[in-house]
Amino acid sequence: MSAMASSRAARPRVSRLSWLARLGITAGAIAATAALPLSTGSAHAQPSAHSGPPLGLSITELSQPYATPGQTITITGRLKNRTHHLLSGLSVQLLASASSFLAQTNLESFANGTQSVTESPVSGVAQVKISKLKRGQSKLWTLRVPVKDLNLTCFGVYPLTVQAGDATGAAQASEPMPLPFWPDKSSGCSAARPKPFTTSWVWPLIDSPHQGPCPGLLNNFLATSIASGGRLSNLVDVGSTYPSANLTWAIDPALLDNVSTMQKPYRVGSSVKCSKNRVHPADNQAGKWLSSLTTATAGQQVFVTPYADVDLAGLAQFGNNTDLSTAFSDGDELASRMLHRAQKTAPLPAGPKQLSAVAWPADGRANTALLENLGAMKIGTVILAMPPSPQQGSTPGAVTSTFDGVGTKLKVLLADNTLTDLLGSPAAKSNRAGSIFSVSQLFMAETAMLVAQLPADQRPILITPPRRWDPSFNLASDLLSDTVSAPWLRTASLNRLAAQKQEHVFKSVARPYSKAQLTGKLLREVGALDNRVSLLQSIVISHQLRLYRAMFGIESSRWAGSGIPIAQARLTRMARYVNNQFAGLSIGGQDKVIHVTLGGKVGTVNVSIHSSLGYPVKVGLQVTSNNDTVTATQHNPHELYLVQPQTSTPVALNVAAAQTGQAAVTLRLRSKNGKLLPELQDRPLTLNLSATNLGTVALVIFAAALAVFVIASAAQALRRGRPDGTDPAEVASGPASSSPGGAAAAAEAAPEAGGVASGAADGERNRDSPAAPDRPDNVFGDRSELSTAGPAVSGQGSVLPAGGSSPAVPAPSAFSNAPGHRPTEETR
Questions:
Q1: What are phi and psi of 777, to 5 degrees?
Q2: Quick one: DSSP state of residue 217?
Q3: Edge-to-edge strands of the sheet including 648-657?
Q4: Nearest to 218 by CA among 226, 207, 210, 208
Q5: pLDDT tier at 702 (50, 70, 90 boundaries)?
Q6: Which of 166, 251, 521, 727 has the highest CB neighbour number within 10 Å of its CB?
Q7: Statement: residue 476 has pLDDT above 90
């Protein structure tokens, strides 16, 4: 016996209830189907006034899950009184047969009680006597039997039955126990000890998707699952305990992502208004679980499902190839980073630091469309359920291949359906000792039958539990311990399994639609929402991966079958979230129709883009007019406007009209690719533009007034240019105008002095004062030259300076050039 087997025998085996419990049959059905004669050794229980079988019989421990020569087997169990009265004179005995099962179907019929087997009490094994049992009371019993007394010969699986009853036969019950036998080398049987069959376990770490559109999680179920004793915690702990099992780990990247979220404070809730979701503190178990997983998988083979374990066959069948490919690439990138593996997946055989390029469709079914997609994505291996075999009496090996539809061969690994169904039975989910034992012992018997069918023909075996397997810690531990210790099995990873000899007994491994797929109606609705999510992502500055991942969560294989309503509810919630995001962007204010009147044929209209979102976006404007003669345009029609959270961004539109008229100009938001954002409760902004000639008329009036002003000013300037008090003829003759201090200088001073007083003073100076130097020919004189003169004082004459020699020149007035202020002959 190996060290592992010894360790296995040393610790107590957990008990089993009826084999029928694994099939979910009720107690009444058990009583009805198990009522077989004692002489045949079949399980049965007589009816009583109490509804259901009066005795509850279960096996709680077996010293070793298979028998070998020279060994003594110890069987321990429990007997319970289920009636409302005292039971007395009870005994427990062992029945056996020296004939092994010839086919796997015979084994299963014996285990579920649908086929009787001729058995007799084992000689030399004393019955266990239980004098009495009060109502509801139970007692342990133990049977010991030397293997030689069972008369077992060749390798195979043999029927044993534990039977209990009272002396009258009114209360009886029995429990079948198939027992594999491993003979010694001296056995006279042909192929008495076959070479071990290569056996691979796929160890699944896949959960329901918990990602919604909001940051955080939709629920907090993971907290229980990763805590000590939880489902995911048990799977990691058991898997790490048996490195010699050479497990191949199948991990959903969404699970890694969700547990990683829990390492920091995170929100939990399904409200589409993310702020309403409750904040949970960081989960201390999250980091520990991720660390334990990384340690457990180090050096072992790992492949990852697409993100959220999307329904591969459904997406391929209903045409959403983009989501199919993206879910794979996103999952590979995330898992490689978190598990410290190379980012690029590798075909089998993959290295210990790589992720294997393996696909595992839900329910083990793949249609032709999926096989073609896998070939296009360079995924060279797919795990499927074994199709119905054309061979009779034996199960084909697990390795074959098929063409993928794109010109290359796809390696196909076929899981044994019987083992998958057993591991997914109701009993496999139970924590009751009897159920755990019944599953683990039948598992051993089933693997032995696979080998015993054709012991000389080496055929690999692939074991795939349900994707979201939920065994007890004891059951998971027993299964791996038995696999490692069974002498007819040799554990191996998928790398070694895939290298085994191929069998080509199936015309096709592709299988049509099944109940394990999502419906076409749901997936088409998801595809339509995908387009809106992509549009939303196109205007966001940084892509929000959680939106894509929330969509993958709706497409998860978790919702196939009875989970469709849950997927539909998530789809509705996601649609509401996306609609709310688009509704957070608008143009203008509350008024969606604005009337604008232009005074001319060109102008500018200012509008603004409002955002109530919590993140920045970049959007463009689409501007359309229903009248080609009155249009509004942007400075750069391709410009994108950055709109910060909770703010508004102004946009100026240039309006031009070829002629007077009206136009309704519609403004809508668009993405960088020109796709219009959807119209929700916010309608597009409409500008009702009216172009008139009011501006043109105003310009004409202004131009006419300017012309009159220019003409009048020119005439006035000509008049001001004539010397005061002289004949025009003198001016034309030249001497006066050419002499220094002449009339020209006086004409320069006159407009600067302003007023009657200044004119009189200038007149006196022109006649009596010496000639002044020439002055610049400006309408307004240089202020520096006039800065010494003080202001004129009304009602007074000239103000004499302190010296009294001559009158001071008055300061220039700002109005001295105004029409009507020129000095005249009369004022002089």
A1: -85, 60
A2: B
A3: 585-587, 602-611, 648-657, 630-634
A4: 210
A5: low
A6: 251
A7: yes
Query: What would the 3-class secondary structure string for 361-383 be?
Result: CHHHCCCHHHHHHHHHCCCCEEE
Element housing 165 (H / E): strand 156-165
Measured CA to CA in angstroms, residue 102 lies from 178, 203, 660 at distances of 13, 31, 99
Q: What letter would DSSP give residue 494?
A: H
First to last CA, the chain: 146
- Assess whether pLDDT exceeds 60 at residue 691: yes
Higher-confidence residue of 654 and 758: namely 654
Phi, psi at residue 300, to the nearest 5°? Answer: -105, 165
Distance CA 394, CA 381 (A): 24
Using a 10 angstrom Cβ sphere, with 0-12 exposed, 13-18 middle and 19 or more buried, the burial of residue 336 is buried
- Whether 247 and 203 have beta carbons less than 8 Å apart is answered as yes
The lowest-confidence range among 512-526, 610-624, 688-702 is: 688-702
Distance CA 729, CA 818 (A): 28
Confidence of residue 574 (pLDDT cuts 50, 70, 90): very high
3-state secondary structure 387-449: CCCCCCCCCCCCEEEEECCCCCEEEEEEECHHHHHHHCCHHHHCCCHHHHHHHHHHHHHHHHH
Q: pLDDT for 509-543, tens place per residue?
A: 988 877 778 999 999 999 999 999 999 999 999 88
Residue in 2, 491, 496 with CA at minimum distance from that of residue 244: 491
pLDDT band for 680, please (50, 70, 90 cuts). low
Q: Where are the beta strands (DSSP E) in 296-357?
A: 301-304
Residue 342 sits at the vertex; the CA angle it makes with 248 and 205, to the nearest 5 degrees, is: 35
Cα(453)–Cα(302) distance, rounded to whole angstroms? 31
pLDDT digits (tens, 9 = 90+) for 277-311: 999 999 999 999 999 999 999 999 999 999 999 99
Q: Taking a C-beta distance cutoff of 8 angstroms, is the pair 531, 673 a contact? A: no
Structure token digits, residue 771: 């000639």
Ranges of beta strands (E only) in 49-86 are 55-62, 72-81
